[in-house]
Q: What sequence folds into this?
């Protein structure tokens, strides 16, 4: 397994970003998936092409799983598309996949399975691009690149997420995903076209129709480009996206409390069984001391394994994912409240309120 430091950053072609945005907004709020094509150059993963995965037919009961990249039908479609692209001399190296989300709600078992499929089977130098449709609708492109960390991949392959396994791999909720710096790139032709589009067109020259027109040439008015003025920046109402993010954060906290209660129940059950085992062992030792005094053979002291059954420790994977999702929501809320706090600070004349 290559070290995660082999990929230090991700460079996405602007056309690829536009295709992802078009695919996600076309079927919003349905989650969409697609393949990423490109190559790695000196630690920079260059994503130059993409294509969407097919959607399931209406009325299909397996519609929730038919869209995932690890689906057999999607894998066949992806391989065929790559073969066709290779025939026309287009970048056909699979470097990952993308998916859309709403307000950062993407960290779950399905997401981990898909990325694990790519990093372990397809190509170890792969990433996942997560595009947030709702946050992008507010005026900024919300797209991020992630990879699974090496210690999480090792623990996931062993399929053991007990406390001892987490301590062995030094794994915490913040060590599940590694976010890579992402930059958008335009080709020189696209940059030249954008500069031409940004230049306002010049009005056509008007030739005089008579000799008098030479003395009094017509004056063409300067083109007036209206300024798109709005007062959204002065709005002091609470952002509805901030409210939705807080609701999702509270739901994740409730899910985390449920996981914590389940683990606490396991610990109480384990403590009760261990207390019973300790009592039984003490009783057996007393019986054996009496039998030894009577010159009789002592009874075996390991029969407790047949009489008692210790509860199985639950997996901590769900708890780790929920904790990582809470961190994602907290970062979003922090970003939204920064703007609101600045507005209230300016409204109060620069004097903070305590």
A:
């Amino acid at each position: 397994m290559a070290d995660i430091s082999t990929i230090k950053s991700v460079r996405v072609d602007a056309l690829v970003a536009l295709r992802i945005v078009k695919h996600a907004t076309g079927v919003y709020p349905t989650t969409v998936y697609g393949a990423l094509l490109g190559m790695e150059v000196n630690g920079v993963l260059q994503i130059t092409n993409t294509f969407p995965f097919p959607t399931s037919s209406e009325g299909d009961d397996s519609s929730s799983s038919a869209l995932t990249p690890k689906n057999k039908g999607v894998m066949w479609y992806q391989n065929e598309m790559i073969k066709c692209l290779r025939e026309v001399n287009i970048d056909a190296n699979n470097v990952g996949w993308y998916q859309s989300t709403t307000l950062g709600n993407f960290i779950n078992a399905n997401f981990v399975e898909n990325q694990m499929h790519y990093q372990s089977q397809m190509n170890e130098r792969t990433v996942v691009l997560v595009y947030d449709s709702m946050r992008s609708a507010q005026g900024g492109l919300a797209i991020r690149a992630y990879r699974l960390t090496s210690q999480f991949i090792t623990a996931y392959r062993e399929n053991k997420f007990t406390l001892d396994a987490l301590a062995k791999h030094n794994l915490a909720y913040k060590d599940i995903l590694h976010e890579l710096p992402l930059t958008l790139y335009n080709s020189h032709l696209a940059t030249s076209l954008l500069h031409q589009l940004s230049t306002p067109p010049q009005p056509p020259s008007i030739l005089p129709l008579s000799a008098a027109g030479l003395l009094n040439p017509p004056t063409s008015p300067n083109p007036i480009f209206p300024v798109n003025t709005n007062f959204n920046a002065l709005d002091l109402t609470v952002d509805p996206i901030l409210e939705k993010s807080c609701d999702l954060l509270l739901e994740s906290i409730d899910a985390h409390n449920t996981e914590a209660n389940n683990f606490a129940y396991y610990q109480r059950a384990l403590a009760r069984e261990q207390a019973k085992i300790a009592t039984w062992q003490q009783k057996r030792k007393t019986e054996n001391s009496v039998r030894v005094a009577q010159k009789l053979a002592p009874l075996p002291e390991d029969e407790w394994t047949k009489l008692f059954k210790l509860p199985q420790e639950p997996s901590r994977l769900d708890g780790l994912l929920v904790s990582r999702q809470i961190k994602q929501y907290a970062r979003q809320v922090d970003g939204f409240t920064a703007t609101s706090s600045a507005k209230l600070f300016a409204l109060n004349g620069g004097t903070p309120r305590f």
Q: What stands out?
A: Residues 58-66 have pLDDT under 50 and may be disordered.
